[in-house]
Amino acid sequence: MFMGASTKQGYDIAIKSREIIRDLIKDDIKDLNPYEKDIVERIVHSTADPEYAKLVKISNNFVTESLKSLKNNETILTDINMVKSGITQYDGEVECFIKNEEVIKIAKENKITRAAASLLYASQENFEGILVVGNAPTALYAAMDLIKGNKINIKSIVGVPVGFVGAADSKESLHETDIPNVITEGPKGGTPIAVACINSLIQSLKEV
Amino acid sequence: MFMGASTKQGYDIAIKSREIIRDLIKDDIKDLNPYEKDIVERIVHSTADPEYAKLVKISNNFVTESLKSLKNNETILTDINMVKSGITQYDGEVECFIKNEEVIKIAKENKITRAAASLLYASQENFEGILVVGNAPTALYAAMDLIKGNKINIKSIVGVPVGFVGAADSKESLHETDIPNVITEGPKGGTPIAVACINSLIQSLKEV
């Protein structure tokens, strides 16, 4: 059902909310395609923060490449479990390796964050699919390095880490690559934004 | 470790982030006690949105009553699994009933949301502890009704649902009761805010 609502009451709230949001942000999103519009609307819905309509930047190839991957039920890898918990309607696997024993070992040995170590581990495990980062800039840098070295098969990245230290730079770096990506400009971002973005695409496929 | 960081790099980022935040919001939080300050700082950390320093409203009895409950390892009940996933350092139980078969049945029979039905179910199960709501205004209303009727033993409520429809009213209603509570004024709120608030208190206990 629309926006993850499972009852009539939830559905009605979601519909009314969308109408309010469309009215608030229509000028900001007028040049986007319908898939991109839905992504931005859903982000604003999940944060009640219309500023995101100005901050979300979607690369030209993001929707097409992501939909291709999702249609094939390729794996979605998330940086933290909170992001994973929000992706409840996908027919493929949703993975988060942050608590994996091997990942914790890689992090300690290399003195890197567990989020970055997750990407090294995913590379070892021949990961193929979409990366969704709601928290850790270090996960984005690790992914960009591995992609550059042809060491991981990431089809697209939802890269929306949050924070005043490092997050904005990591997102800007990602958006400058030719990896299909969506980012939020500046420090703002986080779990609800990451989840809203990927769920929008998953939902789009179910409605076709 | 501080702010859930598990490596030196994560720890350094968290410390620097806190310094930036303190500088941004110091005027807004100058009248709060140290526990309350930490709650607000952590919310701003998790959203990179300094506006929350103006929106967070903490009732006088919230910190004391919540700490008492947490010290006793009473259960934390969350409205959605995303909130549950973010509470990783608690020694007591963290529960979410949204996917419980009985809850789904109660929701259908009474034509209410599953989030509201979760509260009815918790009441049947003699729940005792803290309620953390990051998403569903209906969960707040259900909790307020049950508390009024002495049907549930909720010690405090983190009530920060997000959305343009109903969320603000539900939070205002909660803040007018004498239930120990924290809310965010207006439509903004959500999972990261809920998680930051309860994790701040859990962390405070570990540092004593």
How many strands in all of chain A? 6
User: What string, H for helix and E for strand, traces the elements of chain A in order?
Assistant: HHHEHEHEHHEHEHEH
**What oligomeric state is this?**
homodimer
Q: What's the total helix number of chain A?
A: 10
Q: How far is the N terminus from the C terminus of chain A?
A: 13 Å
Q: So what's the overall shape of chain A?
A: globular
In the sheet with the most strands of chain A, the strands line up as 1-6-5-4-2-3
Features:
10 helices, six-stranded mixed beta sheet, homodimer, Rossmann fold, 208 residues, alpha/beta
Write the layout of secondary structure elements.
The structure is a homodimer of 208-residue chains.
Chain A: H1 8-25, H2 34-47, H3 52-55, E1 56-58, H4 62-71, E2 75-78, H5 81-86, E3 94-96, H6 101-110, H7 114-124, E4 128-133, H8 137-148, E5 153-159, H9 167-176, E6 181-184, H10 191-207
Parallel strand pairs in A: 2-3, 2-4, 4-5, 5-6
Antiparallel strand pairs in A: 1-6
Helix pairs in contact in A: 1-2, 2-10, 6-7, 7-8, 8-9
